[in-house]
Every structure is written in C-alpha cells, then in structure tokens.
Amino acid sequence: MSTGFKFRSELSAHSGDVRSICCPQPGLLLSASRDFTVRSWNLDANTSQVSEGKVYSNHTNYVSAVTYLPPSSLSPQGLILTASNDRIIRAFNEVDCNEPVFVLHGHTEPVCALAANDEGLVFSGSWDSTAKIWNHDLCLATLRRPGATIWSVIFLPSTHPDELYVATGSSDSVIALWRIQRTDLNHQHPYETDKPTKTLLGHMGCVRSLALLDPSRLLSASNDGSLRCWDLSAGVCTAEFYGHTNFVYSVAVDPRGAFIVSSGEDRTVRVWPVPKPALGCQQIECEQTISLPCQTAWCVAVTADGDIAVGCSDKKIRLFSQNPTRQAPPDRLQAYENELAHCELSAETLPESLANERVPGIEALLVPGKKDGHVSVIREDSKLVCYQWSANEDRWLKVGDVVGSAADSATGSNRTLFEGREYDFVFTVDFDESMPPVKLPYNKTDDPWLVAQNFLYRHNLPQDYLDTVAKYIIKNAGLTETPNQKQQQSTVSDPFTGGGRYVPGSTMESGSTRERTQLPGPGDLFPATDYITLESTNVSLLLRKLTSFNETATTPLSNRALELVSALDPRMSNSDAMELTKAVLDVLPGWKAETAFPLFDLLRCLVRWPGVSAVVFEPASWSNILQVSDLQNLLDSSDLQVPPPTPEASNCILFVLRLLANCIAIDSSTISSDAYSSIPTSIVTIVRLASRLANLLQFKKIDFSGKKHHQVAMATLLHNLSVFAHFQCKSGHLLSVLPALRGLPGLCTRMATGLLSVVGTDPGAVSRVPPEVVWRLLTALGTAIVTSVPDPAMEDSEKILLATKSQRIRLIGSAVPLGPLDDELAGWGHFRQVLLFWAQATAAPIKNRECASSLLQLLE
C-alpha cells in the first residue's frame, strides 16, 4: 500500500453493538445491531460525508447478520436479508422498510450467518448446528455439523454448472466444503447431509468468518487469533496471518483485490497484503494496524471504492479511507486521535511486561517502532501510557492509558461508582446473546474467583459460567496474582491468576528427605515442569549406515563431513556442529527416504548445539525435511484414504518427531521475557505444526500401532508441548506474537486423550506400548488440563472446586474421539474407563498407576 488508511467518519445511530455490516453497492452500507434493527447508510463518493438512510425493524431479538440479495426475477429490486436471534430470517424491500416481503422459518436456534448469490439463493448458518440453502422462501437443503455452531457461510464458485458449491465455518474449528448436485435441490424433498465433500483443518478455535479471496482461494478468521488462506482445489493452507492478539471475528477482501482486512477482540482493524498464489505456507505480515476506541470490532467490510467500515461494540460504525478526499478534515482527525488517547487499556491485554522498573520514560518514543502496530508502554508523570507505532505516518500514536498495572492502587483516581460504592473496575459482562449485558463490579483486593461465584449467585446464572467469568475478571483487571495467593509463592504459578497452585518437585525432587506415605496428589505431578530429550545414539552404527548409503547417493557427504560424524560427541565444538549440520542439509534433497533416515538421526542430535536449530528450521531446509521424510505429502493430503507412509518414510518420520521433541525442550530455554525479542523459528514452526500433526492422528493418516519407537517419540513431543504451553500461558508474554499458543493446551488434551484411547483397555494393552509412553501421555494430559482449567484458590468453596472439576471433565469429554452423536458426558464416561484401567493395572509400573490415580483425583 502506498498510502495508509485514516479516519473518515463515525456513524452513531444504533443503540446496541453493531454485529454485522455489508457494502452491496457503491454508496450503500447496511448495518445490523443488537438494538433489534438494521440500518442503511448513504456514502458520498467524493467527501467524508455519510447520511442516514432507512431503519428496518420488526425483529424481536438481536440482529446478528445482514446481507443483500441481488435483483432477480422474483425480486427485481433486490432484497435486504436479516438474521436474528429470534431464529427468523427476514427479507425487506429496500424501499419499504416497515414489513418484510417474506420470512424464513426453519432454524430452531438463533441465526448468526447469512450469504446470498446472484442466482437468488440464500445461505444461512445457525446455533442449531445446521446451514440451510433457500430459494426465495423455500428451503432446498440442510447441511449439518452435529454439535457445532455454524458461525459463517459462503457461496463458492463452481466449475461444474450442474452443482452448487458452498462452505461453512463452525465452532469445531473446521471449514467444511460442500458440493451439492442441483438435481438434489428440490423443495418438495429438501436435501439433507452431514457429510461434507472436504474439510479444511488447521484452526485451533472457532471459525468465525469466511471470505473469498479469488475463485481458487478462501480466507478464514478464527478465535485462535489467526487468519488463514486456503487453496480450494488442493485443500491446504497456503498462508497464515498472525498479528491479532485476541479472537478474530471478521475478514473481508477489497473488491479490487488490493488488500485484506480483519477485525477482532483486540481493539484493532488490521490491513494485510494479498498473499502470492502459490502452495507452501506463507507467513503474512500486517501492513497497517488501526486502533479503535472500543473493546471489540465485531465486523468489517470494504466499500466498492476501497474504504473500510467496521462495526463496534460501542454501538458505532467507523469508516477509514486511503483517499485524502474522503478522509476526515484535520480537526476531526485530531478529535479521533484524542478519543483514542483517552481510552483505558488493561495491562493484561498488552504484550510487554509492565513491571514498574522496566517501564521507560517518554524518551523511548525517540526510537522508531520495530513494525507497524508495535506497542510500547511508557511512563508519563505518575501514570502508564500506551503508544502504537504507525509505519505509514512514521510516528507513535497514543492509544490509551494503562489501568490494572502495578502502578495503580486500590485508592487511585480510576475508581468507578456503582450502586453507591466505588470500585476499581465495573465490567459489562455479555455472556449470552439471548440475555442483556449485566454489570460486574470488582476491586483489586478481592479474590476474582469469589467475586465470580457471588456474581453467579446474584444473577442466578449456571455454575458452568464460573471459569469464564473469573478468567474474564483476571484478564481485564490486569491481574497477575490474586490477593489470597500472595502468601503462596511457588516456582510455577497458575497460568491465569499467577498465584501459586503447586510446588513442583516438592515431593519428588532429588535430594528430598521427605518420606512419601501416600499416593502423590495431583499437585505433585501436574503440571509437569521438566522437558524430556531423545538424544542417545550409536555413533558407530550411524557412521556405518551413512558410509554405506553415501556410496550410492547422488549428493554424497564429503569425507570431512563423515569425519565430523565419527567425532560426534557432546564435547564437539559449536563450529564443528554447525559445519556438520550445513553439510547434512546441503545433501538432503538428493537423498531418498530409503536412505535418508541416518541424516535425520544426525539432525535430531545436532540441535543440542546453539544456533543449529535456526539453520534446520530455515524455510528452505525445513521444506526439504518435510519433503524427503514424506511428511509434507501426509500434511497436504485432503483425502482421508491417503495411503500410509512406506516403512522407509516411516523411519524418517520417527527421527523428525524426535527432532521436534528435542527442539521444544532445548530452544524453549532461549526465550526471554520480552514479547518482541526473537522467538526461535523452531518454536514458531512446531507450535503451528502441532494442529496438523493432531489431524494426521485423528484421521488415521499415520498409524503408530506396533511401532514402539514412534510411540515414544510422539508421547515425548506431546509431553514437551504441554510443558511449554503451561509455562508460556502462565507468563503470557508470547501470546501476542504467537497467538497459536492460546489453543495449544486444548490441542494437547485432544491428542493425549486420543492416543491413550487408541492404546485400549484390554489385558494386552500394558505390554502393547512401552511404559514411558503411558507415563508421558498421562503427564501431558494432566499438565494440559491444569493449564486450561487451573485449580481455584485453596480458600474457595466446595462449589467452586466442584465446578472446576466439572469444567475439566467437559474439556476431556469434548476431546475424546467418539462419534458425532456422543456428548461430553459420554466422552468422559469412555475416557474414565481408560484412566481406571491404568490406575488398576497391576502389570503396569507403579508410577503409571499413581499417575493415572492422580489424574482421576484431579477430575473427580
């Protein structure tokens, strides 16, 4: 982009959150709101002026989506379509806004997504786990995603005139592609299916929005904090967009194809370049970050002339333009900057540490930001202030005052009056779209879990909301440690509250003289805090294999490289290790899977030396590793019937898994507490690869049955990922630069439950897998669970403890790989039998039995 976007205008007529917008024609904008209305707006093409149009009412609940049905034979003037939480879709004539032309009944829960095409067809998605295709007022098809809310729907271009091609994005993190024969679209016998043609897997959170980039590529936005670009033909992700620091709710494409724009829960709209049309996963950098004076940017759209419109949680629509003639005049631009500057930002939502001694003064603003959107917190007088770097304007913009940091006190000037009392915070909690928001007051000296529990009692809310409300308080109040936990310092603290939960090693550390007279409790084993490496190797055997294979290799290793292999030893110099690594990577593309496994074995040992993993995970080198090992073929395949890897490729995959496990263990120690310091490329790659490995296992594209070395490698990798997720979710400073971390504990839970379930509970299970596999899977699962749902404070009531265990049971139940009709309790019932088996298996090592028993204690 040559010119950055600047504020154009602000539209303030809605009285509730603006949840959906669309720009169907030049000069026309439509908006849907929680105030039960849809509004139209007239945009001037040559100035910043916008005028109000019509108001479309007649809804009896929140309006969650709006779209435009182009003119057709049935509706020559076109129709405005609205979707509401009252479960009804309404079609309005653009001129007559009083009564709908027709209504669509059929969904049994709120309708949250709408799309329309040039043929006059309508596509809707709902909380009832269905998407429906309509022709005027007739339902032609119902597509089902059992157990999932369908958050987004879209029509896709088809090369076959006799079929309809559509996509859905849902709360199960899946994008489903559906091809429907037009002969099946008969309103007398509506078509129904729950089997999509293809699924696109990779997101680790709800898929909230879909947008067509071009006829062959689809964009998606997710609660995992990322955008992805998908090749529709190959069914693979070709680009990832990381930059948002919280949920991403909406993605849109400039009609001219010049840029992509997204919005979400992090108070920003972000502008991205269009990725190149090539396979291979590109990492796309944000071009411009537009901060907003509201907490949530629910939806975003691009007008016909390339301006950005965003619907906000403060009931307003804001427009931004690259065209100077449509940008606001200088006084309005300054007023908008002033509004931003007076926002209050929670310290917990910011990426950098805010410890008092680390916050610089105003002199820090003399140094340019590292990239657009770079956030810096400085001290101005007695308060902390947040600035954001604008690369387009080459300056720092003030985006708010920081509250909830160590610099604030409970008697400071930021207190709010609520019901006759002063509070540090009065939050507006919007936990259910079918209920009005309520106020939640909180003082920093209060225990957030106790406040959350009292809040549930007061408003007669389900106990299941406890975890959500407490975490909301902790995050938005900027807490790192709850008051009642300050006396319980430990080396590892709870990942959400910062308070001491366990003292790892208190009963198991070396040198301890304490006698253990009972089984270890959950706090003794979970969270695990030690990484495991797989580094032992037989150098002489490795050298013999390499020498033999080297004789017929098209790109052989040099004699110097073989000499270095023979000298491989922990005392090898770093320069020799680096030389050997580069030699291996140089020849690897010329080796086939049948002979390449010794090279992979070397690499997994060499990553112990500083700097080696950075070379191994350079894009070209890592791509070669995936290609030669055949992992790339498995990862890219969208066919569930893909042939298994050959025995030779399977050997290579074994050493790649060991390489990944070692890199997590070794490179995690190089991460500093500065969110903008360099994160090892290995860590970024492995965290993003984890979900794709999980899909390989879930869909049985790779089977480790009877392969004990593979089982050990996968269990070790999963153990290390869980430990890493626990430490990083606890500190939180990497979440802004690697949002995929947010979903890692849940992903580890899914993988561990799946692998333990596959092992079985028959008498032969104990001898079927190595004992260390079971131990590492159990510790990985326990660590992931306490990271996702931490223990409440010791003083909390029995109700809160029971609610915590209920949350954990539901987490496991939802992760167990049963059929689509099974619910969370059925999943937990199945997996409970797995844990009982290992707790009672007398043939299993005692530490495995103790670990399974402790895990049951954690859950029941």
Averaging pLDDT over every residue, what do you get? Answer: 83
CATH class of the largest domain: Mainly Alpha
Largest beta-sheet details: 5 strands, mixed
CATH topology of the largest domain: Leucine-rich Repeat Variant
What does the overall shape look like?
A: globular
Level-2 CATH architecture of the largest domain: Alpha Horseshoe
Q: Decide which structural class fits the backbone.
A: alpha+beta
Which homologous superfamily in CATH is the superfamily of the largest domain?
Answer: Leucine-rich Repeat Variant
The number of helical segments is 20
Number of domains: 3
Helix content: 25-40%
As an assembly, this protein is: single chain
Strand content: 25-35%
Strand order of the largest sheet: 10-11-12-13-17
Distance between the termini: 56 Å
Low-pLDDT ranges: 352-357, 406-414, 481-519
Return Rg in Å.
28 Å
Number of strands: 40
Biased composition (Polar residues): 481-494
Family: Belongs to the WD repeat PLAP family.
Pfam families: PFU (PF09070), PUL (PF08324), WD40 (PF00400)
GO biological process, one term: ubiquitin recycling
Keywords, please?
five-stranded mixed sheet; Methylamine Dehydrogenase, Chain H; 860 residues; 20 helices; WD repeat; Leucine-rich Repeat Variant; WD40_PAC1; 40 strands; alpha+beta; 30% helix
